[in-house]
Amino acid sequence: MRTEASLFLVGPMGAGKTTIGRYLAEMLGWRFVDSDHEIEVRTGASIPWIFDKEGEEGFRRREEAMIAELTQVRNIVLATGGGSVMRHPNRQALQSRGTVIYLYTPVSMQIERTAHDRNRPLLQTQNPEKRLKELFEQRDPLYRQVADLIIATSDGSARELALKILQTLGLTPVK
Known about the structure:
The protein is α/β, with parallel strands linked by helices and 175 residues long.
């Protein structure tokens, strides 16, 4: 485990990266940033709009630049987009600049959590379950490759999981 003061959350859509990340940041007194939200704020456009106008490749270029920037910030909890690990520069930045936590979430739980979410362009398909399974098969090995710690999100509430992460990493909550 590296000692840099940054925690980076990776995992599939519906894993709870944003919710757990907010708890971690609050408990540590650090800044929380969601890379997808930051892209939306800076561009003034939603992720679905960016996908529609620039395609997935255009979005991934924006995401890569955002992760390159945000992983250099200290005392930050960063929730990354589910596909961020698909690009080698992102994996390299995450691994070399902080502690990476993979929030492992089974596909069945992802389906439950994303069923009514229209803000996920990759799920706007006839068969979202099939798509989630395909994404899991592609991305799970990459999440595992970059992870310093793997936490199963089916093992408690978001707050409990945040506490478990801190305890496992030997970090003491300030709040």
